[in-house]
């Protein structure tokens, strides 16, 4: 009976990640005319693409690097864009058009894969993935230099799970980054794990069942052992700090452009409001876009999403000006 319960919990956790992975998909199935500006085909006129470069020993430890055609500058800005997929799926190649656009603007653009959570890889949690990204950055910068592109600053971004990992690096690891982090942008990534915000999964209820559910899911995501007692007394929060981007925000936090759906049934909307509050309290230069009619895919607010992308471009031009 105990074994069956453990199997059931594992299945529930895997299903959560699957739904998370599928939730972002609808946005990318819809391509309004204005989106073509930000998603372009990569050609020799844009630059050179190197795929599946290694940054570690694990099978998934690969990155794709897009080098701009102009190789005459003394220094270059790096933009890392991390793929969506609910921490269980996705690939850097899926962001090729976005990375091509970033490269066309003169940045060294990089997509990074990370080990995905699965039944076969249950230890590939959000914390492990964040540490892989942390390890990858120095390798990316080193590889760019080998090709003659000296990196002096960077921005990091992503969608959904990729947005979460990007925020963790920008807020938790910026202080030890090999080059200054100048900008964060992304959409619909979870930034915190306060049970009162996760009502869409029933974790806000004052019941042992609710607390056990939160302990199971958050424990898997953080790679830590949590109990219902920890959920009840609040001690779980500090254990999840390594994957809780909002807990690392302070007066030195980098400028940030983010977008969230008000009707998100995957990433809780209340958690994004906690992120917004942290930006305000610490005087971060931020732009927060609320998609009032959308869920996780942001599919029903094209006008707002267009404004979000235009703001991303403005912030890129402001904080990572190409000289």
UniProtKB/TrEMBL annotation:
The family database entries (InterPro entries) matched by this protein are listed as: AB_hydrolase_fold, BD-FAE-like_dom, GDXG_lipolytic_enzyme
In terms of domain of life, where is this protein from?
A: Bacteria
What residues does the BD-FAE-like domain cover? 64-172
Q: Does the keyword NAD apply?
A: no
Q: Does the keyword Transmembrane apply?
A: yes
Give the transmembrane ranges.
7-30
Pfam families reported in the protein's UniProt record: BD-FAE
Mind telling me what this protein is named? Answer: Acetyl esterase/lipase
